Amino acid sequence: MGVLPVPAGVRAILLDVEGTTTPIAFVQETLFPYIRDNVEQYLRAHWEEEECQRDVGLLRQQAQEDSGLDGAVPIPLESGSGDEELERVIRAVVDNVHWQMALDRKTTALKQLQGHMWRAAYATGLVKGEIFEDVVPAIRKWREAGMKVYIYSSGSVEAQKLLFGYSTEGDILELFDGHFDTKIGPKVESESYRRIAASIGCDTNNILFLTDVPREANAAEEADTTASLAAFLPKLS
């Protein structure tokens, strides 16, 4: 692999996750299938819990907003008690989650439920976050050079912290100065990078954003953020 030096003037590194710090295969072949295969079981086990009900409520709200979309799956309110009514609502939630995932949607409602499911999987050792072998050495070099390192992913902040907290490299959360997800804005919109810069107290032109998605890189550059497309992490020369 070649060496791509960090441009002069960069004070903060902003990292994408999927395809940048973590193999795409891990997300596509481990994390997402875990949700599809276990969402019904998870809902049944946690249905009465407040957190689960908040997740369902957010999914129901999203379903209402999606009502005009082709194939959208509504989530009804429970109109009574009994196993049959519960079965009807859980089935609707499962079908809605599967529909959103089939379209690779990145709604906050879906990401929140996924994050909570992954939390349980990581904590029990069913899942470990995969990290490219050059990630930790590169981040350590950046930090030694006085740069701060942040994550910006479409996955929720909670999901990010789980991946790096229960990773194949151990708990590496201490290497990051902060985390951002789509609550600050979509990754394909330039305004999101301006908000991140304001949040961390840094000019956009002092940030280097690393991603494997051209549209994200273009949006960052529109905000005067330096962006680099990389299948691996560039290292300090």
TrEMBL record:
EC assignment = 3.1.3.77
Q: Which InterPro entries match?
A: Enolase-ppase_E1, ENOPH1_eukaryotes, HAD-like_sf, HAD-SF_hydro_IA, HAD_sf
Cofactor annotation remark: Binds 1 Mg(2+) ion per subunit.
Domain of life, source organism: Eukaryota
Q: Which UniProt keywords apply?
A: Amino-acid biosynthesis, Cytoplasm, Hydrolase, Magnesium, Metal-binding, Methionine biosynthesis, Nucleus
Q: Name one Pfam family in it.
A: Hydrolase
Reactions this protein catalyses: 5-methylsulfanyl-2,3-dioxopentyl phosphate + H2O = 1,2-dihydroxy-5-(methylsulfanyl)pent-1-en-3-one + phosphate
| Subcellular location per the Swiss-Prot or TrEMBL entry | Cytoplasm; Nucleus
Q: Name one GO molecular function term.
A: acireductone synthase activity
Where, in this chain's numbering, is substrate bound? 153-154, 187
Which pathway, metabolic or otherwise, does it act in?
Amino-acid biosynthesis; L-methionine biosynthesis via salvage pathway; L-methionine from S-methyl-5-thio-alpha-D-ribose 1-phosphate: step 3/6; Amino-acid biosynthesis; L-methionine biosynthesis via salvage pathway; L-methionine from S-methyl-5-thio-alpha-D-ribose 1-phosphate: step 4/6
Q: Which residues bind Mg(2+)?
A: 16, 18, 212
Broad enzyme group = hydrolase
One GO cellular component from the entry? cytoplasm
Say yes or no: keyword Hydrolase present. Answer: yes
Give the quaternary structure: Monomer.
Matching NCBIfam families, A to Z?
A: enolase-ppase (TIGR01691), HAD-SF-IA-v1 (TIGR01549)
Q: Which family, according to the similarity comment?
A: Belongs to the HAD-like hydrolase superfamily. MasA/MtnC family.
* Protein name (database record): Enolase-phosphatase E1
Q: What's the source species for this entry?
A: Gallus gallus (Chicken)
